[in-house]
Design goal:
The protein is α+β, with helices and mostly antiparallel strands. It is built from 4 helices and 4 strands.
């Protein structure tokens, strides 16, 4: 599992997992489809990778939800622990992030919400 884009942003996010309380992440369902990648499942353990594919530990998926962008619940950004205090702030920041990467995001864009625990570092 890699968080964010490589570089400082990935380092920040992985530090939030290892040294903070980041216990959730979001992805676009379209990425899974385009990359022919299976959606994670509850109980799955994944290696947490930092920059340059450095193994930083292991996370275990505790919940998986697929929903429309407009339906992300307020509890998600708290678990994501990136500074957003509610779903509106999450949507504003993530829309900006994903659109900067070239995606078109609207209320009906489907997102995959993953909740996890850090099980090994």
């Amino acid at each position: 599992m890699e968080f964010g884009t490589p570089g400082e942003f990935r380092e920040k996010l992985t530090n939030l997992v290892i040294h903070g309380n980041k216990r959730a992440t979001a992805g676009l369902l379209s990425d899974y489809v385009e990359e022919n990648e299976k959606i994670e499942y509850v109980g799955e353990e994944l290696v947490l990778l930092g920059n340059n594919d450095i193994n930083l530990g292991k996370i275990k998926i505790t919940e998986v939800t697929i929903c429309k962008f407009k339906d992300v619940p307020d509890r998600f950004p708290i678990a994501e622990a990136e500074g957003d205090q509610n779903a509106d702030e999450f949507r504003a920041g993530h829309k900006r992030y994903w659109e900067n990467l070239g995606y078109k995001i609207d209320d009906d864009t489907e997102v995959v919400l993953l909740y996890f625990d850090l099980v090994n570092q």
